What does this fold into?
Amino acid sequence: GELSAADAAVREASDVLVRHANSTRYEQVRTPARQQIRELPASALPEHAAKWAEAFAPRLRVLTDELEQLERNRDSIVDRLRGLVESSLATLRSAQRLSRLPEGLGEWSGQEFLRIRFEEPDQATLAERLGEVVDEATRAAVKKNSDLRRDGMSLLLRGVQAALEPKGVSVEILKPDAVLRAERVPVGQMGDVFSGGQLLTAAIALYCTMAALRSNDRGRDKHRHAGTLFLDNPIGRANATYLLELQRAVSDALGVQLLYTTGLFDTTALAEFPLVIRLRNDADLRAGLKYISVEEHLRPGLPRTEPEGEAIHGEITATRMFRRHASDDPAPTDAA
It folds into this structure.
């Protein structure tokens, strides 16, 4: 009875070993031991068991150490990715905070131009989700035909997306109108409900917000100047006075200087600007250069700052000028 039970146990163990060796997980394994296990009769397997166990023991230790090292590396990558994701979520919160509008804009006064809402997961859930993102990228690296991008930015974006599951992120923006009602519109609906001028105004406000955010990230939050934005003929799309006023008020609040260029002589729109300069195309045929030069100042300057006067939208604090001197061509020199 005991012998029969022992024989049955050996046969069961042999069957388990053969099934293990035949598993599709190990199709790429080409070791002699696997080949022998698959081809030898079940009755011959026990006599090789001790030899295989002795040969596999050191290899098992090496593989176990390598797997533990890989797991530590994975944990390190997940931890680093988690830090970047948390920094990105903090950037979203800062974008909303920095988009706060100044006073004097009716219902818009003190409102945040951007409203960004999302739910942050706890640390354990975030680590689990980011681990899945890293594992997916690793599997894609093994597949030859995978089209999953594995650059750093793509990985970070997938990490942020995973962190905000299942609801994702909700972004709403104030809709510019003549009376400045505090009406918010989801960004996905902007193309349906915004006019061309409203879209342009929203785009300018978003740019100013991003410029202020970049300045804040660089530790320059105490310096109001966040850069200059050249606008290519925006008056053609947004010539309504309230849109121009709103663009300049938002840019002034966020420290961005707007420079408008236009070929339209719209006196109503131009009257909104404290400084208007007419330019003309010019060229230096000898040097093969094309440039623009000042034709005249239609409005010759910005208003002076009065101690108790109205707030102005900007002032020129520095200039750079290049003067081209008229001179004859130098006389030719004799060749040696």
Remarks:
- Strands lie at 114-117, 170-174, 184-186, 227-232, 256-261, 275-284, 289-300.
- Residues 332-336 have pLDDT under 50 and may be disordered.
- The longest helix spans residues 45-98.
- Residues 2-70 form one domain.
